[in-house]
Specification:
2 domains, TIM Barrel, alpha/beta, Chitobiase, domain 2, 17 helices, binds ligand TNX, 541 residues, single chain
Length: 541
């Protein structure tokens, strides 16, 4: 009946149903006004009902919706009661009330996700029931890479809505990479003037012989960013910006050649990168680079109020530093053992810098190599190992191992799956992903802040492709992040799939171009294609 995703902690069904009508009112108590505004807006659009303001708590009229806070609940917890008195949603904090409002939308049926009513006289009903609910993890993240392929602002706002519908609450915004710089920085205008466009793009994976010979690019102005951050906040989503250093920086070096290792290569000859893989052109460890990026981060901190700021730190080849007299001089001067320690020093600089400004640094698990900066947190992407080591050393961790939650990896074997990355991560693989590895003691496991699914976009050139890769797996991921599921082998995947039948109707109403469920895909119904053996995973990077 309820078919909720992610599954709530408990549902007690009643008898009968509550109907929302033209007389129904919506009352938002103190602290829930923002949630009330959001709920009224989406439900008015979908239903055409006016849902007028209820002045008193009881003025919901017996068939209306009331929102209020209950200090006895955790900040993100909520209780939803639907009975003869109406729908009452109580949240521990505004976020809890918001997640409860999301559940109400699911209970109203798929058409509650549309932006205009299909018919004017339909019945909008909520079954009588009581739901008690709250999240397993405080960090339920999604990373979107807007550097490899640019997602225009509207698409970002749309993904924030999709996250909210799945009770995800951290948007990791991968804003810079070798292939593009996507955030306006006022004091360094060439970052976007030059760094936000590339001349052409490799089609498919790195080894592909094909190119799309068209410029690709775009960026967000600072006002766009403010709007994105505010829109996310209305949905109780924190935006964590990522400025990737010292690797993945060719777009910045193309804009400002002095940022690169000028004593090793002619950095003025570099352009925004047009292919994929790990790039040798990394930042020079000079004072000039540090000052430049402090300037970048100053503007970033003004735009993003999040506690955490992501500095990347991944995939930084050390070859140029090995050959650079300047880098070697820095190693000597600082008394460092090697280039790995130079990377730690670089990250450590920004850790100190961010900490002094009341923020916390987070980086990919490579920041562990050569010593991890104190207070820093780790996004564990190369499996669990980095996360385990970090948690044992007392650092906070977000678990996002590529073996389970890299949504750019294909979701089925078969030569016709449209995305060329070799590894297969099925819907069931994601559903059986466990963010807390059994090796951790309960004490260490407390450092696992939560988990995150990552959408790298080398092979996703537009919104339809991003949707296809993200869904339905993001729904499974949301349940892993929110619901207290049993150990992987005991999880009821068949039950999840049954609930997904209802969830696909919601995704349809939202206009999500998900991968069609089960059975041969439409383009696989040609004779001779089905059952063809897989030729092994193509190279990834
Ligand atoms: C590794 S995950 C990367 C990304 C790629 C991704 C492709 C990480 C920190 N680095 O640059 O886009 O693999 O799956």
């Amino acid at each position: 009946m309820t078919e909720l995703i992610p599954a709530p902690r408990s549902v007690v069904a009643g008898e009968g149903e509550l109907r929302l009508t033209a007389h129904s009112r919506l009352h938002a108590g103190t602290g829930t006004e923002g949630v009330g505004h959001w709920l009224r807006t989406v439900l008015r659009d979908a239903t055409g009902l006016p849902l007028r303001e209820g002045r008193e708590p009881d003025d919901a009229g017996g068939d209306g919706v009331r929102l209020r806070l209950d200090a006895g609940l955790g900040a993100e917890e909520y209780r939803l009661v639907s009975d003869r008195d109406g729908v009452l949603i109580e949240g521990g904090g505004p976020a809890g009330a918001f997640w409860g409002a999301q559940t109400l939308r699911q209970l109203l049926g798929p058409d509650a996700y549309r932006r205009a009513p299909l018919v004017s006289d339909r019945v909008w009903a909520v079954p009588h029931l009581t739901i008690e609910d709250g999240p397993r993890f405080p960090w339920r993240g999604l990373m979107l890479d807007v550097a490899r392929h640019f997602t225009p602002k509207e698409g970002v706002l749309r993904y924030l809505d999709l996250m909210a519908a799945h009770k995800l609450n951290v948007f990791h915004f991968h804003l810079t990479d070798d292939q593009g710089w996507r955030i306006e920085i006022e004091r360094h205008p060439r970052l976007t003037e030059i760094g936000s466009w590339r001349a052409r793009t490799k089609t498919g994976h790195r080894a592909s012989p094909l190119w799309e010979e068209k410029p690709h690019g775009g960026y967000y102005t600072q006002d766009d960013i403010r709007e994105i951050v505010a829109y996310a906040a209305e949905r109780h989503i924190t935006v964590v910006p990522e400025i990737d250093v010292p690797g993945h920086s060719q777009a910045a070096i193309a804009a400002y050649p002095e940022l690169g290792n000028t004593d090793v290569i002619d950095t003025t000859a570099l352009s925004v990168w047009d292919t994929w893989g790990i790039n040798p052109n990394v930042l020079a460890p000079t004072d000039n680079t540090l000052r430049f990026y402090e300037g970048v981060f100053e503007e970033v901190l003004e735009l993003f109020p999040s506690e955490f700021v992501h500095v990347g730190g991944d995939e930084c080849p050390k070859d140029q530093w090995r050959r650079s007299a300047t880098a070697q001089e820095r190693i000597r001067e600082l008394g460092l053992a090697d280039e790995d320690e130079l990377q730690s020093w670089f990250i450590g600089h920004f850790d100190t810098w961010l900490t002094a400004r009341g923020r916390r640094l987070i980086g990919w698990d490579e920041i562990l190599e050569g010593g991890l900066a104190e207070g820093a947190a780790v996004s564990s992407w190369r499996g669990y190992a980095g996360g385990i080591a970090a948690a044992r050393a007392g650092h906070d961790v977000v678990m996002c191992p590529e073996q389970q939650v890299y949504l750019d990896h294909r979701q089925a074997p078969g030569p016709d799956e449209p995305v060329p990355i070799g590894w297969v991560r099925t819907l069931e693989d994601v559903y059986r992903f466990e963010p807390v590895p059994p090796e951790l003691t309960p004490e260490e496991a407390r450092h696992v802040l939560g988990t995150q699914a990552n959408l790298w976009t080398e092979v996703m050139e537009d919104q339809a492709r991003v949707d296809y890769q993200a869904f339905p797996r993001l729904a499974a991921f949301a349940e892993v992040a929110w619901s207290a599921l049993p150990a992987p082998a005991e999880r009821d995947f068949a039950g999840f799939e049954r609930r997904m039948a209802a969830h696909y109707r919601r995704l349809d109403a939202l206009g999500v171009a998900y991968r069609p469920p089960a059975g041969p895909l439409p383009w696989q119904r040609r004779p001779g294609v089905l059952g063809r053996p897989i030729d092994g995973p193509p190279p990834n990077r």
